[in-house]
Amino acid sequence: AAVTAAVMVALDAWQGRSASPEELRRRALEAERRQHGLPSGVDTATVLGGGILWAERREEELWTSPVVSSPEVLSRFTLFDTGTPAEPTGTVVAEVRALKEQAPHRVEALLERMEAATRLFRRSLLGSEEEDLLFSIRTFQRCLEDLGVVPREVQHRVRQVEAAGGGAKISGAGSLSGPGAGSLLVYHPKPEAVDHWPFLSELRRFQVPFADAGVRVEAPLPSSENGQP
């Protein structure tokens, strides 16, 4: 979603035009559909809007709203790369969908636990309850593991993070076979402790701000004489 939106905005800027947010959303969703099949629209909404968004579907429509968070809490998160997933997002999503058809009650129970954990996480971002924040991250991660989208190698790293007093969950679709599963979001009450964990030292660490602004043109691009790239 991020690459799609960035390419579209850059191309528009190159051609000397600016698409409306609604047009960008429509085009980005169409690109995601062609790549993944049935995207939720959450990634696109986040990339375009920026910040931390609460998203839920109401009567087949995706509704989003800003989430208030504590900068101090956000500063305790770190993002790592566990490696490129072995399968594309579409394949992982299709596998989970097939699992839901085979075991609907089990998967529905997991989804309900994930929703409850997400709601607790949203409340905890204000920084009032440290234990609730850790519990929500750990619970959501366990549910992802039960859905089969977290390879054993990544699960092992997550258990090590938890044993050290933190919490971690994959960010993205995950992977069916591993060893990598994409991004790993790590939280610890004392983020400086993460610097000394040997079990994460071999992973690439992303130096990125959390809750940053959405897609934007940071420098003007000259358009060609005929308006074409």
Number of strands: 6
Q: Could you state the CATH homologous superfamily of the largest domain?
A: GHMP kinase, C-terminal domain
The CATH C-level class name of the largest domain: Alpha Beta
**Low-confidence parts lasting 5 or more residues at pLDDT below 50?**
none
Shape: globular
Order of helices and strands: HHHEEHEHHHHEEHE
Strand order of the largest sheet: 4-5-3-6
Helical residue percent band: 40-55%
Strand content bin: 5-15%
Tally of structural domains: 2
N/C terminus separation: 22 Å
Mean pLDDT: 91
Tell me which CATH architecture of the largest domain applies here. 2-Layer Sandwich
What class would the helix/strand composition place it in?
A: alpha+beta
Q: What is the helix tally?
A: 9
Care to describe what's here?
The chain is α+β, with helices and mostly antiparallel strands. It folds into 2 domains: 1-69 and 211-229, no CATH class; 70-210, Alpha-Beta Plaits (2-Layer Sandwich), CATH 3.30.70. Helix content is 48%, strand content 13%. It contains 9 helices and 6 strands; from the N terminus they run H-H-H-E-E-H-E-H-H-H-H-E-E-H-E. It has helices at residues 2-14, 21-36, 42-49, 71-74, 89-102, 104-124, 130-146, 152-163, 198-201; strands spanning 53-58, 61-66, 77-81, 167-171, 183-187, 204-206. The chain has a 4-stranded antiparallel beta sheet. Strand 1 and strand 2 form a beta hairpin. Helix 1 crosses helix 2 (21-36), helix 5 (89-102) packs across helix 6 (104-124) and helix 6 packs antiparallel against helix 7 (130-146). The longest helix is centred in the middle third of the chain and has 21 residues, at 104-124. The relative contact order is 0.16. The mean pLDDT is 91.
